[in-house]
């Protein structure tokens, strides 16, 4: 093998943690808890993806590609946190496809108004 490699166990644990988070945010009905942790989850996922991209770029000696990767990850994280809301009434995770569209204002399942993700817990 040429150069350093990420340990397989670390990759597996990161993959498992990412999936556990995805399942939690998809299926948990605790909107307050999801709202509290979602931005941090997206930031952590962005850091992991940025780390993998950095590792791959260093390995292939294409570090200049990170000029595109990091702003793209930051934009992805911002838009993801902006577009996803959690319904306090029924606990649903509500997202709207289309990065430039307005975030959803009401829950499509129960019709309750939706609050912004992040911010101080209530
Ligand atoms: Zn709802």
Give your account of this protein's structure.
- This protein has one domain.
- Helices cover 55% and strands 5% of the residues.
- The protein contains three helices and two strands, in the order H-H-H-E-E.
- The chain has a two-stranded antiparallel ribbon with strand order 1-2.
- Helix 1 packs antiparallel against helix 2 and helix 2 packs antiparallel against helix 3.
- The longest helix is centred in the middle third of the chain and has 29 residues.
- The model has no long low-confidence stretch (mean pLDDT 87).
- Bound molecules: zinc ion.
- The site of zinc ion has 8 residues, from loops.
Please count the helical segments.
3
Shape: elongated
Strand order across the biggest sheet? 1-2
List each distinct ligand once.
zinc ion
Summarize the biggest pleated sheet: 2 strands, antiparallel
- Beta-strand share of residues: under 5%
State Rg.
Answer: 17 Å
* Integer count of domains: 1
**Gap between N and C termini:** 52 Å
Structural class: mainly alpha
Count of extended strands: 2
Which range best describes the helical content: under 10%, 10-25%, 25-40%, 40-55%, 55-70% or over 70%?
A: 40-55%
Question: What is the H/E order?
Answer: HHHEE
Mean pLDDT: 87
Question: How are the SSEs ordered, and which strands pair?
Answer:
Layout: H1 8-27, H2 31-59, H3 66-83, E1 84-86, E2 93-95
Bound molecules: zinc ion.
């Amino acid at each position: 093998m040429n150069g350093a490699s990420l340990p397989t166990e670390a990759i597996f644990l990161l993959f498992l943690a990412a999936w556990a988070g995805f399942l939690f945010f998809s299926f948990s009905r605790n909107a307050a808890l999801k709202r509290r942790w979602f931005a941090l989850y997206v930031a952590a996922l962005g850091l992991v993806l940025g780390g993998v991209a950095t590792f791959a770029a260093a390995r292939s000696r294409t570090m200049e590609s990170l000029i595109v990767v990091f702003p793209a990850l930051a934009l992805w994280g911002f838009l993801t946190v902006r577009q996803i809301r959690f319904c306090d009434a029924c606990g649903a995770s509500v997202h709207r496809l289309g990065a430039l569209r307005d975030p959803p204002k009401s829950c499509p399942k129960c019709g309750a108004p939706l609050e912004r993700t992040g911010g101080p817990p209530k």
